[in-house]
Design brief:
This protein is α+β, with helices and mostly antiparallel strands and about 160 residues long. The chain has helices at about 35-45, 90-95, 140-155; strands at about 15, 25, 35, 50-55, 65, 70-80, 85, 100-105, 110-115, 135-140. Strand 1 and strand 2 (about 25) form a beta hairpin. The structure holds zinc ion. Zinc ion binds near residues 18, 20, 23 and 37.
Amino acid sequence: MSYAFRKHDYNLNNFERCPQHGCVMMQVQDLPPVCLIEWLLENAAERTVRDVIPREQGEYNLPAVILDNGFMLPVEQAIRVRPAAPMELTLEEVAGWYVADLLSMPDKDAVAVELLPPGAVVDEVPRTGHEDPGVLLQLSVDILLYLLFDQEIRKVEP
Ligand SMILES: [Zn+2]
């Protein structure tokens, strides 16, 4: 069975909300609901970038980052943290970088990860004038939910 993806398939108002993060939870049939943020943390936290798929080759008309465990992050926008500027995502730029942080804005249903080069650490107290090497990837919540749904439905309909 295939589940062709269409953008905005999901009305996020129809989803249960995670009491801890306020983000949406995916529930398929009688399986326990899965929190989107926890699922992302499990699959992406501290993983390193293995590959970057450019928009033209992306399955969903978006660029994607493939982590070392094969997990895919669908990227709506890549932004250099400081100085803040949108950027083109290339493998040369972020190969070997790691997922240092996961940021979620549940009221906007937006999720982003911060990538840092090997050895760099998240700056808890940003200093002014400080160069932050990080790159923020704003992720497509629609596609993440689709991927999570796909994972869950395979548990009941192998
Ligand atoms: Zn949660």
